[in-house]
Specification:
Layout lengths: L27 H18 L3 E2 L5 E3 H9 L3 H4 L4 E3 L5 E4 L4 H10 L9 E10 L11 E10 L5 H17 L6 E6 L7 H15 L6 H9 L13 H5 L10 H16 L5 E2 L11 E8 L8 E7 L3 H4 L7 E7 H10 L9 E7 L2 H16 L4 E2 L7 H10 L2 E7 L1 H6 L1 E6 L5 E5 H15 L1
Parallel strand pairs: 1-5, 7-8, 12-13, 12-14
Antiparallel strand pairs: 2-4, 3-4, 5-6, 6-11, 7-9, 9-10, 10-11, 14-15, 15-16
The structure holds histidyl-adenosine monophosphate.
The site of histidyl-adenosine monophosphate has 26 residues, from β6, β10, β11 and α11.
Length: 437
């Protein structure tokens, strides 16, 4: 009897990151850190403090705040039942959480308005493409409480543009609009007028827009479908339907922006995809992003805190898509350099090793980045390695150097060598580090 072919041990499965998620690696993460650090600095100068929020929340929070019929909630949320069978969702955005936190932590007792910012991952099950991911990162800010003075809208936008300037984001355009007052005021009347106009043109619309005529006519204005553009241009415009208060408010916001030297373009089709907005809405586009070119979106949402069980509270904020921001910076030539090292310690011999360990500690304590090979290498090989990782200097430590008390420092860009006593080495490198960074 013949035996069947012998099976070898099963090959372990190779895992891949889930579709729409990715690893962010060095040196690119240097750029991410710089962006976040700059946001922190700029936002602090405008009086904002950082809030850190949970990654998941009750599903009901997002359904209530963002809107159960929005694409974000109805199609894109990652929701699951917890062990006690309550439904939980990975956050698709953070404004709802900030409002929940404002209420839960009694922040209405603090001096108003409360200014908060956040950074972190958000989750939406969208179709991945350039600039669109299922786990993506936002840097956002919210102003809650106090008045709804147009100066607040303008200052939030000014802060955003200051930040984009500071990180040298090129080719930005700020678009603004007013979508009127919620439900019982001018917006409702406009939405009805829009619905009637859309009903008349329904057979010329694609299936998504046809559905939206009934569920959310405003979103039809967002459509990028080529065949719908001519029809959309003929639709009634919200600016012609604003009530007196909203019209005056919109004019005042524009005045306040001009006072601050913020350049904007008006876009009557800017309605945003989340239900909580009223009056001021805005978006910023940047270069090099293709179809997903909105690098930031935001607007006013008076009433949202109340909708979530809190007291009547004014609110306005924005969120920057950090992935898109980084893409745009990279397209504009702001690549991160590989990290390199200040010093590579090429050591040979056991006495030299003890000195090398001590030298590494002292150099790192003075802020230099150091590579200390874990096992002995011939000097030639060590210097090759030092070049490969982009070290600026090699510190050569053999038993001779240790006995003499004179260390050899080799400049790897021009090949020059200097002999220095231990304290002078640190001094020399420190001074050089300052002048070369
Ligand atoms: P949003 O417009 O849904 O607004 O998102 C803001 C920004 O996040 C977008 O402009 C885009 O840059 C980025 N973004 C959204 N989805 C993705 C994705 N799938 N992949 C990559 N980037 C994405 C909000 O989230 C509101 N919470 C903003 C806000 C704060 N409004 C008031 N306060």
């Amino acid at each position: 009897m013949s035996e069947g072919p012998k099976r070898g041990p099963e090959k372990p499965r190779k895992f891949q990151a889930i579709k729409g998620t990715r690893d962010l690696l060095p040196p690119e993460t240097v750029l991410w850190n710089r962006v976040e650090q700059t946001a922190n600095e700029v936002f602090t100068t405008f009086g904002f403090g950082e809030i850190r929020l949970p990654i998941f929340e009750p599903t009901e929070l997002f359904a209530r705040a963002v809107g159960a019929d929005t694409d974000v909630v109805s199609k894109e949320m990652y929701s699951f039942d917890d062990r006690d069978e309550t439904s939980i969702s990975l956050r698709p955005e953070a404004t709802a959480s900030v409002c929940r936190a404002y209420i839960e932590n009694g922040m209405q007792q603090l001096p108003q308005p409360v200014r908060l910012y956040y950074t972190g991952p958000m989750f939406r099950r969208e179709r991945p493409q350039k600039g669109r991911y299922r786990q993506f990162y936002q840097i956002g800010a919210e102003v809650l409480g106090g008045s709804d003075a147009p100066a607040i809208d303008a200052e939030v936008i000014q802060m955003l543009m200051t930040f984009f300037d500071k990180i040298n984001l090129a080719g930005t355009t700020l678009y603004i609009n007013s979508i009127g007052h919620s439900a019982d005021n001018c917006r409702r009347a406009y939405v009805e007028t829009l619905r009637v106009a859309l009903q008349n043109a329904k057979d010329k619309l694609g299936p998504d827009s046809q559905r939206r005529v009934d569920t959310n006519p405003l979103r039809v204005l967002d459509s990028k479908l080529e065949s719908e553009q001519a029809i959309i241009e003929t639709l009634p415009r919200i600016a012609d339907h604003l009530c007196d208060d909203c019209r005056a408010n919109y004019a005042a916001v524009k005045n306040e922006l001009e006072l601050r030297g913020v350049i904007y373009k008006e876009n009557w089709r800017l309605v945003r995809g989340l239900d909580y907005y009223m009056r001021t809405t805005f978006e910023i586009t940047a270069q090099g992003l293709g179809s997903q070119n909105a690098v930031c979106g935001g607007g006013r949402y008076d009433g949202l805190v109340e909708l979530l069980g809190g007291p009547p509270t004014k609110g306005i904020g924005f969120a920057i898509g950090e992935d898109r921001l980084i893409l745009s910076l990279q397209e504009g030539g702001q690549a991160s350099q590989p990290q390199g090292r200040d010093v590579y310690i090429a050591w040979m011999g056991q006495r030299a090793y003890a000195t090398a360990v001590r030298a590494a500690k002292n150099l790192r304590n003075s802020g230099l980045s150091v590579e200390l090979p874990p096992s002995e290498l011939k000097f030639g090989k060590a210097l090759g390695q030092a070049n490969k990782i982009g070290a600026r200097y090699a510190l050569i430590l053999g038993d001779n150097e240790v006995a003499e008390g004179l260390w050899t420092l080799k400049n790897l860009s021009d090949g020059t060598q200097t002999k220095l006593a231990e304290p002078a080495v640190i001094q020399y490198l420190r001074e050089n580090q300052r002048s070369s960074r």
